[in-house]
Structures are given as C-alpha cells and as structure tokens.
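Q: Hi! First time doing this. I have a protein sequence and I read that you can turn it into a structure. Is that right? Here it is:
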Amino acid sequence: MFLSFYNFIFVLILPFILSRLVFKSIREPLYRSSFRERFGFFKRKDNARDCIWIHAVSVGEAVAAYPLVNNLVNRDLDCIVTSTTPAGKERVQQLLGNKVETSFVPLDFRGALRRFISNNRPSALIISETELWPNMISECQTKKIKIFLVNGRMSKSSARTYRNIHFWTKSMFEAIDYCGVQTLRHKNRFISLGVDKSNIEVTGNLKFDIALPNISSAAVDSAKTLVGQRTVLLGASTHEGEEDVLLKIFRDLRLLFPNLLLILAPRHMNRIGRVNSMALKHGFNPELFSKTASLSNDKNILIIDRMGLLPSIYCCSHLAFVGGSLVPLGGHNMLEGVRAGCPIIMGPFIENIEDIVRDFEENGGMSIIKDSFALKNEIKKLLRDSSLRSQMRLAANAILEANKGSLEITESGIVNAINRN
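A: Yes, that's right. Below is the predicted 3D structure, encoded as structure tokens:
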C-alpha cells in the first residue's frame, strides 16, 4: 500500500526532479552527463562476477566509506560506488581511481532501479549513514540482494518523522540484514523503527579510521610553500552566509594580526565565483588556488577552487572554522582537520555530527560557539595563545586514538553477513 502511494507521488513530482537537475546543470555541467545514469543506464565493464553496490550520497559519505571500500576491493570483491552529487562521484574517483566503477545513483523509481540491478548484478547493497530509499530497499529485497547500512546515524527529528509513518516504513527497516551504527543512541533509534536487534551493532564512526593525510606529500609541501610564514585561518566546507561572517571578522582581525591569511574552502565548487565576488566586495584582494604559485603580501584571501585539497590545507592552518554549522545545515565532518593537527571551531548547528562534536568539546578537543560574535572572540583568543591551541590538539588526538577500530568491526560485520545464508 505504502509503495503504491509512494510511487504515485514520485511519478507526479518526477518532472520537478528533472527540472531541478537541469537547473543544477547550468552551474554544474556534470549534472548534465548524469541523466542516463539517473535512469539506471549504466553497466559495468566487467560483468562476469557479482559485485557489491556501495551507495555514498556525497563527499562526506564517500570519504567515510573509502577505507571500507578499499578493504573490500583488497578482498577481491568487485565494487560499484554510486553517488547522488557530482562532487561525491568525483571524490570517489580521486580516492579509489580504477579500483572501482562509479555511477550516479538511479532515481528511486522502480524502472530505473530494476534496470541498474539487472545490468550490474549486485549481490549486496551497502548504504552509508542515512540514505534510505523505499524502492531501492524494496527492489533489493525482491531480488534477494542483501542490504547493509554502515556508519549509521539517525537524528532525533528523523526518528520522530519515521515513527509518525511507522506503519508505512517499518518494512523498510526490517529488510536491513546488517546495521552498523555510530553510537548506542543511534542503535536504540534504529531498533525502535524496526531493525532486528540481532542484525545491529554499535561499530563507532568510520570517519575515525580514515588515514591521516601524508604530511610529506607534494600537495602538503606545495600548500606550506604557498602560505609561507603567514598565520592561517581556514574556513572549511563553508556555505552561503558563513563566508560573509568570516570576511567581516577577518577585516577586524587584520588590525591585530597583520600577517593573517584567510583561506576559504567552499563546500560546493559552483560557488567559487560568488565567494570571490564577496571577497572583492569586502575590499580584499583574493586569489584562486589553481591560479597562483606564490602569494604576495597584498593577497590576503586564498580561495580553494579544486576538490580534494582540504586535507593538505588543514596541515598548514593554525586554526579552522568548519562550516555548515553557523547556518542551519547540521555541520560537516571536522575529523579531517583534527587528524591534521588543526584546532577546530564550529557553530551551534551540529545535528549531523552531534555525538562526535560533543565528545570533543566536553574533553577540550575543539570549540563550539553560539553566534558570529562569539566566533570572532574565540578566533581572537586562540590566535593569541599558541599554548591553548596545543592543548586543544593534544586533547583531540587522545579522543581520536580512543575511538579507533570502527573499520575492523564494520568490515567483519559485512563479511560475516555476506557469507551468512
């Protein structure tokens, strides 16, 4: 009953979904090339063996899933990784190269999913974090494709929404063959929604097990050469409304720290022009990373306009604000910066990663501020006191070490579930 109603609604809104993709393709041309794949028209080059289908919606999920996918490939398992966004697909290709095949995920439309499944013959579907789609789950269950959720998380508000329509969604959660979740709180929420207790375990967060960026790599050396001896404030994974705040703060901070360099790394590459214009409007002289080999003293803003550079930039930053947290987007993963030894500040909107962030904050491993005024004061305090930044780094490293091991538990759970009849 629910799927019939869902599919009826989906057909009605399909023209709007396609229109949105067309609109997005104006600013991000890769969306244009995705149309056939969105309808399941993708076939692996080597279709002789079954494969594992891994779905990682965007950049964050792709980075989190990378160590697991890499280990599965090393076990001689063929893998195909799907993403929803061009940035996610590009990140998978950067991380895994030709070890896996990549595609945009089919729309949650029966015909598209059946075509994709028929073309690629997956024996298992691994979903990263929260990307649950009714038809995707239903079609895999019908074809006896095992369904795994890894690095699972369920916010309080999402759990409440699912409970309100529990009669319709319970079967979707009951279909999950293995569910590895980040915390006990998330485990209890998934069980309350229908996941079998015997199929779920707390694995921790895969993001704790992502390898530390190689500090001797050419990319890090290049970044360090570029910034030279300047003090670096990084705005990482920023969104509309956050760069403007950072630029205003930077204008005041330069009076106290004349050698300060602000590096802005917008979450979405299609906003580079907008961020550059914003910096010019504030009276600064910005430079794009891809167009400079050296920064003169009059260049006080550096804008990162290429994917995959953030780990290297963290390594040469003295302090970083991680975005999606000063505007209500739930916050982005800050572990990349922590692993690089960079002290982290985030805003109040941290719903997506609250369990991790609170652990760091309560143990002195990072700062959470409530608004732009508090952000300015916290940046000023930390830039003035290198010993405070050192204490934050030490506390953060201790938390990182204490939380490692998720990859081994998750991989073991997946392999055991694959081999289980």
